[in-house]
Specification:
- By secondary structure, the chain is an all-alpha fold.
- Helices cover 73% and strands 0% of the residues.
- The protein has one domain.
- It is built from three helices and no strands.
- The chain starts with 7 loop residues before the first helix and ends with a helix.
Length: 67
């Protein structure tokens, strides 16, 4: 089964939010910031990593010719 390309319209908003976050991430006290996360926020972070992994794997598949 051939893998589909990820449409740019789906990736672009993700990249924009990552760029925004990266712009301020250096100033975040990570221990303090994560100490007060509730369960819903932790689940959102897990979902973010899941989607980021999906995008990275699809990107690598495209780069490698869809092995």
């Amino acid at each position: 089964m051939a893998k589909k390309e990820i449409p740019r319209r789906l990736v672009k908003p993700f990249l924009e939010s990552v760029r925004d976050f990266n712009g301020v991430a250096e100033a975040i006290d990570r221990k303090k910031a994560t100490k007060n996360l509730n369960q819903e926020e932790r689940e959102e972070i897990e979902a973010l990593f899941m989607h980021a992994t999906f995008i990275r794997n699809a990107m690598e598949d495209q780069r490698d010719g869809g092995r």
